[in-house]
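Slack export, channel: ligand-projects

TW: morning all. Re-posting the request from yesterday since it got buried. We need the structure predicted with the small molecule present, not the apo form. The ligand is magnesium ion; the SMILES is in the block with the sequence. No rush, but it would help planning for next week.
GE: picking it up
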Amino acid sequence: MQSAVEVKGLTRVFEPKKKKEGKSVTALNKVDLRIESGELFGLLGPNGAGKTTLLKILSTLLLPTAGKAFVAGFDVEKDFTEVRKRINMVSGGEISGYGLLTVKENLWMFTQFYGMKSSVAKQRIDELLTQFGLADKKDEKVRTLSTGQRQKMNVIRGFVTDPEIIFLDEPTLGLDVNASRVIRDFIVDWVQAKENRTVLLTTHYMMEADQLCDRIAIIDDGRILACDTPENLKKLVKMNRTLKLDVTSLKDTSKFGSIAGVEQFTFQDDAEKNQTYLKFILTHDSAVTDIISEVQRKGARILSLQKTEPTLEDVFIKMVGKGFE
Amino acid sequence: MAVSHDLRTFKNAAWLGWQMEANWTDPFVFATYSIVKPVAGSLILVFMYLVITGGETQTPFFSYMFIGNAFYMFVAEVLFGVTWVIHDDREHYMTLKQVYIAPIKFYIYVFGRAAIKIAITTVGVLVTLAFGVIWLGVEIDLGAVDWMVFIPALLVGLLTMLIMGLALGGVTFLTAKHGMGINEGIAGVFYVLSGVIFPITVLPEWAQSISYLLPVTYWMEALRRGLSPDLMTSLSGATGLSDFSNLEILLTLALSAVAFLFISSAIFRYADKTARRKGKIDWTTSY
Amino acid sequence: MSDTWLITNLRAIRGRAYPRVIGSKREPSWLFFDITLPLLTVSAYAYIYKYMDAPPEFVGFVILGGAMTAFWLNILWAMASQLYWEKEIGNLQLYLIAPISRMSILAGMAVGGLFMTAIRAAATMIIGILLFGIALSFAQPGMIILVFMVTMVSLYGMGMMFASLYLLLGREAYHLSNLLTEPVYLASGLYFPVRALGFWAAAGASIIPMTLGLDALRQLFYPSSGSEYGFLPVNTELAILAVLCVVFLWLSKYSLAYMEKLGKTTGRLTLRWQ
Ligand SMILES: Nc1ncnc2c1ncn2[C@@H]1O[C@H](COP(=O)(O)OP(=O)(O)OP(=O)(O)O)[C@@H](O)[C@H]1O
Ligand SMILES: [Mg+2]
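GE: finished. pasting the full token output, ligand included:
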């Protein structure tokens, strides 16, 4: 099947405005990437990593310095008209349109640039406004909207033209929990509702990437450091899962170390409180059940249980070498 | 303490004004730019005059028209300059909000920026007058200038314009994109009714009675009387203000400045309050 | 395929024209100024002519010229600098990713601007005519309309070209527009017959479509004044204007394509000013 996005050796260098001042910036450095049709794909990276640059190249706003990029099988450099027919783009915090138009008029205007029939466009706009809980604002002037309402409108602007591939550059930037959730839920539903719909989004929110994306590419300094499902990415960090248990006093702990999937086992008795603390480092989740039954077999009761897993943030810190936000 | 603070605001604003007015290009381009516009504006009148009279510019009416047109630049530019500060900040850079919430006296900021506008306009006026005197025989004799009339007239008149500009600037808070139109409109009214390029006596009666209420009418008359006393004697009777002595004219001008000071600050305060009430301060209205 | 391409682009033009048309309806406060402002200048100049005992058609000349300033100001402030502001707002990149001809965006801006300005200019003219009791000749209505249309297409073609070129400018854009007022009024003879400038100066000024368009309209509205105050015969002027039409439309398409290419290469076209 046709890849939605295919990028080969993509490099983008920004030259300084005046030759003497400043040096050139390599925003993208030999990037290879393939996004299949139907994927919800996330780009994760620190500020200045090159995310927006990549989206601009894919949306035909910027030319690569070297390498190739294909969207829906079309070369963004040569067949940009074909690409444009199939895409749309939304950026977080954008203030698109004209403040004195109403929300509905503004959205309608943008559909006209895609040649949509007015009646079809208006109907679809109404549906989307309702889905986003913005229906009561449709006749308000755009300039009176709050940031969140405005961003919902922007997202609608991107989806209303029913693109095959949509580029979302930090779509939930600066939004509250509710507004973000409305937008996230919509994105997920949208990709799943029809085959061959593809989303490429950038974000700074780990949770967002983890929850939404089928696959994630971690990008830093113009290079893709890793690209995989969130699950697999987390496996990359050698930070192990740990299990900590507080149990009522336990005398015989000899069996715990030999349970399959347990890599390391330590314990500590607290005679005063009549408790025992157990700590396991696991290589396999299946060990958890065995450990618990072993505790019960020895006639002890579990007082508390704590399991830790690596997060995407751990992956990110490991890859990029610095924290986030 | 407060005064030095205000002074600093004024200086900073003037500096900012200079950056915005002049720092976009090298001095040569800027000088050309500052001169081409006013000279072209005057040349429109010159050609209008030439088409009808067929070539003779050494007439009292030509000098009357030319001098009035040159000084009118102050009217247009100062009114425009003060209002533009407010408009420009709001429409294009959205800094008005920042300026607004900053603890400085807003009008000092505006005057500071307008001061630069006055300085630049002064150059334009001087160049235009020099051009007229040298090439077109406009009647100004530096030896004959009545400085005691000219200097006070110039200063009081400029102050009046600044104060009016502020009032109009307040009004732009309330109006849309072409709020700039208001002060162009007021400036235009002065152009027609204040005897700038033709004596008010050619206007219909009802219009003349308005002319007598406009400070610019007296300003233009006073400036001409100061700058070219002989010219005004030769036109005596034609300008419609012959009944006023020089002192009377200056006093009328000063009085109108005071009156506008009160009117302006009232309008500005009202406009400012309304703008905040309606939440319009940081609106942009481009489409 | 080419049929849907046409319809798509026509829709795009309508889409972009819409905010302009609706805009002046939403904010009528300045419609008033757009009509009265030119009238004030026109009145001032009309009184000068009256004071000098000029032939009566001169007041008519001035009114026509005053109406023309509305179009020129629209070109400068709402066409030339528009793409630049669209870039600042962030709209430009959304226009550029749309599957339409870039010319449709400019054409939409032009159509919307022209439509609204025409209403204002007409109002200015009608009030001026009534105020000063002018008698215009409508002996050749077809020619009047034709000359007007050709003038407008070439004038807005010029505006579309400016729109792209202004993208190269930053803060200077404002100054350039500001500069292109009085000198252009002078060169195009908005307030006096352009012939007064002398043949070569008038010929040079004819690159601005307003110059010949206005001169031709004056001759059509005052048929007897042509021989004394007209610059070139009306038919010649019309022919030159038609050429200007093609030239400016082509140049605007070319310069826009050039700007887009430049922007895609340097990455500055979608960069906001900060
Ligand atoms: N038009 C441009 N001209 C010059 N340099 C640019 C331009 N656009 C981006 N850059 C540079 O390229 C690098 C990548 O920028 P980009 O906007 O792609 O980062 P990003 O990953 O989107 O960052 P953020 O998370 O902050 O949005 C940065 O160093 C930036 O300064
Ligand atoms: Mg970015």
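GE: first-pass observations. The radius of gyration of chain A is 25 Å. Chain A has a mean pLDDT of 89.
TW: perfect, thank you
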